[in-house]
Design brief:
Length: about 80
């Protein structure tokens, strides 16, 4: 179940505590310990092309957009 659907369902059942507890007990997404889905881009929430060096934690597309603003220079 995608995260967006999971959050929509929580909004719908938040006023029914028993249903919400049962839903969370059985359907909460597991915390990832390994694999591609463990890290997400902070700006775009994409999984692929992730740059984690220097604590950047974003995908390569988002990094290219703001690289010069955060002090990186492009050398030819």
């Amino acid at each position: 179940m995608p995260a967006s659907n999971w959050k929509k369902i929580l909004k719908q059942i938040k006023h029914k505590p028993a249903k919400m507890h049962r839903f969370l007990k059985h359907n909460r997404p597991k915390e990832r310990t390994t694999g591609k889905a463990r890290r997400r881009c902070e700006r775009t929430d994409q999984f692929g092309g992730h740059i984690k060096q220097y604590g950047i934690n974003m995908c390569r597309q988002a990094f290219r957009e703001i690289a010069e603003e955060i002090g990186f220079k492009k050398y030819h």
